[in-house]
């Protein structure tokens, strides 16, 4: 489906007003356009500047703000645990979900080929575009304004990460859960796509021959962790429902005996 924004090849700044309001930043429209310009669109439109340099910058800004927050929020945690907390916040899946909350996929400028393959909802494109937008805010408004944006978008994610506990290592947690449920050992399959400088990895995890989760990431490790988290959630929810069903059956008084006699 072609939207008003997608169909605009000239000055499309007026259509970005909703995004600027969602970001809460009076960002230079030309810079915001560049942050939204995927390389596929740039290639098909005469070699326009892409958002990749801004993505590089935004990745560092996001990492700095999140790291600083975790460092001060958890003064007793060792470096290794802080790194795991940061990885739970700054990963492709988390970034893509935040991007979806902003409806960023609607605004991103894609080439026809990428558009045709569902690029507007690809986690890798959404995550990269969000980092580019953060980079643009930093470049135009400075670190303080960029930090405010990161906090507004990611503080809920940071808060959830503090309660993950052992779940920070999802592969270990999944293996412990499947062992407790007598389901067998998780098996991972990873496929990669994209150019060498910007590969995307997609992992699936099977337990007992059944696929329980999938994940996507910029590295094999990240993709496997995302798949393990999805599988852990699925199996845990299934187990919880089974326990609740047994409990309900145990408390069910059954058919009324007097009614049966009648």
Task: Compute the separation of the termini in Å.
Answer: 64 Å
| Silhouette | globular
Gyration radius over CA: 23 Å
Question: What level of helicity do the residues show?
Answer: 55-70%
Nearest-integer average pLDDT:
85
Total DSSP helices: 13
Strand content: 5-15%
Question: Residue ranges: pLDDT <50 for 5 or more in a row?
Answer: 1-13
Could you please say which CATH topology of the largest domain applies here?
Ribonuclease iii, N-terminal Endonuclease Domain, Chain A
Largest sheet: 3 strands, antiparallel
The tally of beta strands, per DSSP, is 3
Order of helices and strands: HHHHHHHHHHHEEEHH
What is the number of domains? Answer: 2
Reported CATH architecture of the largest domain: Orthogonal Bundle
What is the class of the largest domain in the CATH system? Mainly Alpha
Structural class: mainly alpha
Give the neighbour order of strands across the main sheet.
1-2-3
CATH superfamily annotation of the largest domain? Ribonuclease III domain
């Amino acid at each position: 489906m072609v939207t008003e924004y997608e169909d605009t090849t000239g000055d499309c700044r007026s259509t970005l007003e909703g995004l600027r309001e969602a970001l809460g930043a009076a960002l230079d429209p030309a810079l915001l356009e560049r942050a939204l310009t995927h390389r596929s669109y740039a290639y098909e439109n005469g070699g326009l500047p892409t958002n990749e340099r801004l993505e590089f910058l935004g990745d560092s800004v996001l990492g700095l703000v999140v790291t600083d927050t975790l460092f001060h929020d958890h003064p007793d945690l060792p470096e290794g645990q802080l790194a795991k907390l940061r990885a739970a916040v700054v990963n492709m899946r988390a970034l893509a979900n935040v991007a979806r909350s902003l409806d960023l996929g609607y605004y991103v400028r894609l080439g026809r080929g990428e558009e045709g393959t569902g690029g507007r909802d690809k986690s890798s494109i959404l995550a990269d575009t969000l980092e580019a937008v953060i980079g643009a805010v930093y470049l135009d408004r400075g670190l303080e304004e960029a930090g405010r944006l990161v906090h507004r978008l990611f503080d809920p994610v940071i808060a959830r990460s503090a309660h993950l506990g052992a779940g920070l290592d999802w592969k270990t947690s999944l293996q412990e859960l499947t062992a407790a449920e007598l389901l067998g050992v998780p098996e991972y399959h990873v496929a990669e796509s994209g150019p060498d400088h910007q590969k995307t990895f997609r992992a699936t995890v099977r337990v007992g021959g059944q696929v329980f989760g999938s994940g996507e990431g910029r590295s094999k490790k990240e993709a496997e962790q995302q798949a393990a988290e999805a599988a852990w959630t699925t199996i845990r929810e299934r187990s919880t429902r089974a326990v609740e069903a047994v409990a309900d059956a145990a408390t069910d008084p059954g058919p009324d005996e007097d009614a049966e006699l009648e």
